[in-house]
Amino acid sequence: MTRCDWAEDTDDLMTHYHDYEWGVATFDERETFELMTLEMMQAGLSWQTVLRKREHFKQVFDNFDINKVAAYDDTKIDALMNDAGIIRNRRKILATIHNAQLLVKWHADGKTMNAYLWDYVDGQSIVNKYAAMSDLPGKTALSEKISKALKKLGFQFMGPTIVQSWLEALGILDDHLASCTVNHMSE
């Protein structure tokens, strides 16, 4: 089996994520919020660092239950800031709570983030066949457009690079290399 360069010769978490999650279409709102949060937390760090902390994130963020996260208070924020098992960045934690609060309002209006994002691509994954990892863009016109729209809607910590990674995590963008034999969208 040939994998994308970033998933070759790495730990089991990265390999599993590459083989079974990255580029796989996601239509679950809770998972969409989880990946939004993890991508925000990853900013400035490695994805491997985030994956190693993922299970603990799930525990302390109530399995990314949007309603529960939206209700976090100062006591919970303090507990999160003191938990060495997660990435303790106050701005990222506050942005996660803020974004959950916005999503609660969306849900009350019958909207979901998942449907909103998939509407940008008419419900179809964009499959790219890059020749090398150096060809993968850090951001695209699509991620810039969505980032700008999300910021206008009040979402925080949603820059185009974070959105690009998030779209890949959700399978909206399938950016496996052409040489990768783990290409979920073409199966």
UniProtKB/TrEMBL annotation:
<dbReference type="GO" id="GO:0046872">
    <property type="term" value="F:metal ion binding"/>
</dbReference>
<dbReference type="GO" id="GO:0008725">
    <property type="term" value="F:DNA-3-methyladenine glycosylase activity"/>
</dbReference>
<dbReference type="InterPro" id="IPR005019">
    <property type="entry name" value="Adenine_glyco"/>
</dbReference>
<feature type="binding site">
    <location>
        <position position="176"/>
    </location>
    <ligand>
        <name>Zn(2+)</name>
    </ligand>
</feature>
<feature type="binding site">
    <location>
        <position position="4"/>
    </location>
    <ligand>
        <name>Zn(2+)</name>
    </ligand>
</feature>
<dbReference type="GO" id="GO:0006284">
    <property type="term" value="P:base-excision repair"/>
</dbReference>
<feature type="binding site">
    <location>
        <position position="18"/>
    </location>
    <ligand>
        <name>Zn(2+)</name>
    </ligand>
</feature>
<dbReference type="InterPro" id="IPR052891">
    <property type="entry name" value="DNA-3mA_glycosylase"/>
</dbReference>
<keyword id="KW-0479">Metal-binding</keyword>
<protein>
    <submittedName>
        <fullName>Dna-3-methyladenine glycosylase</fullName>
    </submittedName>
</protein>
<dbReference type="InterPro" id="IPR011257">
    <property type="entry name" value="DNA_glycosylase"/>
</dbReference>
<feature type="binding site">
    <location>
        <position position="180"/>
    </location>
    <ligand>
        <name>Zn(2+)</name>
    </ligand>
</feature>
<dbReference type="Pfam" id="PF03352">
    <property type="entry name" value="Adenine_glyco"/>
</dbReference>
<keyword id="KW-0862">Zinc</keyword>
